[in-house]
Amino acid sequence: MVKHTHKRISILSRQRTRYYIQLVLVSLLLLLLDQGTKYLVHQRHVRFSLGWFSITYATNTGSLFSLFAKYASSNTIFISMSVVALIALGFLGVYFKHSKELCIVQTLLFAGVLGNLIDRVLWGFVIDWISFWNYPVFNIADSLIVLGIAVLIYYSFIKKNNDIFLFHKT
Q1: At what angle do helices 74-95 and 100-123 cross, to 10 degrees?
Q2: Residue 38 belongs to a domain
């Protein structure tokens, strides 16, 4: 009976390892896409417009839609909040059962938060470049964060998948 329990723990361990490898690889691909596009726009100061869509280089020391940008300490506060968010995302997979839905949420949020955190640490601001009509300028990391939250809301409230956050049973 002890051997059977050990096998179960070993299988769970392998599944969790595979889960984290997938999470990290997809997050890295999304992070590279975000940072690569920001680098091109930042280095070249690209400007492009189709009327309804434009690529516009902009900097942002605030949060989404430049909220709180006027406060001098906002960058430091957002760096701290980003670090806390990344730690919390890491603990989600450790203490909660992993599901496809939670993996999607973690991947999107991790890549988005890390993408903007890298900007804040390297430049002191976030590089935004995507603009639709008169909508505020944003970037891929912002899109990943919004999409991650939307997926979380969808599976938690609309689909009523309450077991997305069940604790691991060991």
Answers
A1: 150
A2: yes
In the predicted model, residues of the chain with pLDDT beneath 70 are: 1-12, 64-72, 93-98, 160-170
Q: Which of 34, 119, 128, 163 is catalytic?
A: 128
pLDDT at 56: 87
pLDDT of residue 83: 96
Beta strands across the sheet bearing 126-132: 47-49, 53-60, 126-132
**What domain count does the chain have?**
1
Active-site choice (34, 119, 142, 163): 142
In a domain? residue 159: yes
Give yes or no: 128 in active site: yes
pLDDT at 12: 56
Residue 111's pLDDT is 96
| Domain membership flag for residue 72 | yes
163 included as an active-site residue: no
- As a whole number of angstroms, the distance between CA 94 and CA 12 comes to 12
Answer whether residue 170 is part of any domain.
Answer: no
